[in-house]
Here is the input.
Amino acid sequence: MTNPTEPDHSAFEHNEEAGHPDAKGTLSQDQVVLIDEVVAGPDAPAFDFAVVDNKETSVYEGIVDDHEVAGLAYNVAGDSRLVLLAVSVVPEFRKQGIGTELIRRALDDVRAQGKTVTIVCPIVLTFIESNPMYADLIDVKHPGISMSRTRSS
Here is the structure.
């Protein structure tokens, strides 16, 4: 049973723009691990890595020793908005802060370009909820998903 004072990370609400007309979704175990990292994990990664915006594949890539170990996939929506789709981290690099730092650097890049974001990825949404200084990047007309505040009983 989940503690009723803690969020239940198993459900979130979609809007139709996110491609889920039933407005419900369930997180995978991989997503739960990454959300837990964002909420409680280290503020800085345990190692140095590069972040590259691969515009050809529309992925912000986390690179360690010339290998992609994490990614934040996105779609371009016009000249001023990105739709942030999904974060992934290779299992052996999870719980080390790389997912959190990848999101932070990607959002910093979005800000530097003067763009906004639509959030489809619950991990990115959790990051912004935990780091409200990035909330201004969410597109007002097309915000994307929102976390369900429903608790397990």
